[in-house]
């Protein structure tokens, strides 16, 4: 598929799974009416809180994913859940997991966040995601009729080697669902998204939480799509809602031909 229409759901997730699922359903329906092939949501789209994270984790065959499967089928679209807290049968910790569901309600890809947000900025941010979350280890691509997609989650954005690995595995578009804070987002979010797009000559789809969070922090929003030249081709307003963007794989191929830097990579010591 040379042209793909993407719906970006910029939401303000609370600590109420059912209400969050209702929001996801409503936005998916709106995006489907406008012709979206795929709808993507932010990190932790169905539950966002510093408390009771393990208690609210579910398996891949739990209520959250099963509900999303039904929404995908009903609207005949792909749904990328952003991420949810996935139970880990081997450990007391949970995974921060992205799931891509196709229009028939089947899971096509599962990605578990590799880089965990263990950051302390005095007076601003003090989080240690690894206290509750176990990191994944696999760079994940999926190929379907729309193309080759790569997966990442939030803090992964700061690690260019992951994006290069996804590109080397054929990714033409890479998802970045996130809960980027207002403090870091205002200075780093757009810069990092554009950098990853330019470096790898891919489309980057960054979908961020927006507004006050249950844990007393604020998310930056500014969900956007960046093209392979590094141009922001679509950007969300400062509010909860959705954004529709069209990406053109012919443009991507032309960009790579015009400036073939991916073929100029060299090994060095």
TrEMBL record:
GO molecular function: hydrolase activity
SUPFAM superfamilies in alphabetical order: Carbon-nitrogen hydrolase
Cleaved signal peptide residues: none
Record keyword Hydrolase present: yes
Gene3D superfamilies from the UniProt entry: Carbon-nitrogen hydrolase
Domain of life according to the entry: Bacteria
Keywords: Hydrolase
UniProt-listed InterPro entries: C-N_Hydrolase (IPR003010), C-N_Hydrolase_sf (IPR036526), Nit1/2_C-N_Hydrolase (IPR045254), UPF0012_CS (IPR001110)
Keyword field contains Hydrolase: yes
Domain CN hydrolase: 4-249
Family statement: Belongs to the carbon-nitrogen hydrolase superfamily. NIT1/NIT2 family.
Name of the protein this chain belongs to: Carbon-nitrogen hydrolase family protein
Organism: Fusibacter ferrireducens
């Amino acid at each position: 598929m040379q042209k793909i229409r993407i719906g970006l759901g910029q939401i303000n997730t609370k600590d109420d799974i059912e209400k969050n699922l209702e929001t996801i359903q409503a936005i998916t329906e709106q995006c489907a009416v406008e012709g979206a092939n795929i709808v993507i949501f932010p990190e932790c789209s169905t539950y966002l809180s510093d408390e009771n994270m393990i208690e609210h984790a579910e398996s891949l065959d739990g209520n959250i994913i099963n509900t999303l499967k039904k929404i995908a089928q009903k609207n005949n679209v792909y749904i990328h859940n952003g991420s949810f807290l996935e139970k880990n049968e081997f450990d007391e910790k949970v995974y921060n997991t992205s799931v891509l569901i196709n229009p028939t309600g089947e899971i096509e890809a599962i990605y578990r966040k590799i880089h965990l947000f263990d950051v302390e900025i005095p007076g601003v941010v003090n989080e240690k995601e690894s206290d509750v979350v176990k990191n994944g280890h696999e760079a994940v691509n999926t190929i379907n009729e729309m193309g080759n997609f790569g997966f990442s989650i939030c803090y992964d954005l700061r690690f260019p080697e992951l994006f290069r690995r996804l590109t080397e595995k054929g990714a033409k578009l890479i998802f970045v669902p996130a809960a980027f804070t207002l403090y870091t987002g205002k200075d780093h979010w757009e810069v990092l998204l554009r950098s990853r797009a330019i470096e790898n000559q891919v489309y980057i789809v960054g979908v961020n939480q927006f507004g006050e969070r249950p844990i007393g922090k604020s998310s930056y929003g500014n969900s956007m799509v960046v093209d392979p030249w590094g141009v922001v081709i679509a950007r969300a307003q400062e509010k909860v809602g959705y954004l529709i963007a069209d990406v053109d794989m012919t443009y991507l191929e032309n960009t790579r031909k015009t400036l073939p830097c991916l073929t100029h990579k060299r090994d060095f010591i």
